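Appendix B. Chain record.
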Amino acid sequence: MLNLVIVEDEEIIRRGLVCTIDWLKMGAKVVGEAANGKEALEVIEATKPDVILTDIKMPVMDGIAMTEALKAAENPAKIIYLTSYADFSYAQRALQLDVTDYLLKPVNEADLTNALAKIDGKREKQKQEELSWDEGLRAAYHTGNPYVQNVLKRIEEGFKGHLSGETIAEELGVSFSYLSRKLKEETGLTFGGLLTQYRLQQAIEMLQTGTWRVYEVAEQTGFGDYKNFTQAFKKYLHTTPKAFMQEITVGIKL
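Structure tokens predicted for this chain:
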């Protein structure tokens, strides 16, 4: 079930969206509403929604400014713009802000259903790829498949360097497509997903010691550089390595 906040300055339209759409049928639940972006930021902070359905043109703070504030705060909620303005500049700005969808008023329920289904599908995929931080790969994934066991062992032993699924498959005498299929069946992850999982697991352990700089951790765990490391860290953990270290420092001081 997706938790949803609706942001719309016209009360009649906002109440219509809240009360007349069969959200339950779409796999969603309205947990809050607001009349402008500024008010919405407070509602979003209190309700922690998965999705924000928002108008663009609003008084006090418009949808663009609200989105920029959410992105700056690294809020993970997905945003769908709902507007009567079929203006390319709005659509272009929405793309720049990585907005999930851009729908025109009056809302077409089929389009809205598709937009929410797309978000829910990505969320379920992310859940399947959640990391197991407390165990090594072979301990986390109990498998009797010798090819999969071999891949997990190679990742654990060689994660600091360059690893290629294609090369490993060739060395094992099987096709990469076969190996990929077996990995997915046994672990739910791709080769790249498993490698990233283990690298991040090792990176977190290093960061928790408080003795390594972020760029050093990136180099020592196979990410190569700060940018790649930060992107992977943020994708899976919804925060940055720097913010993670700051939280640890605060915890130690407390």
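Further analysis of this model is presented in Appendix C.
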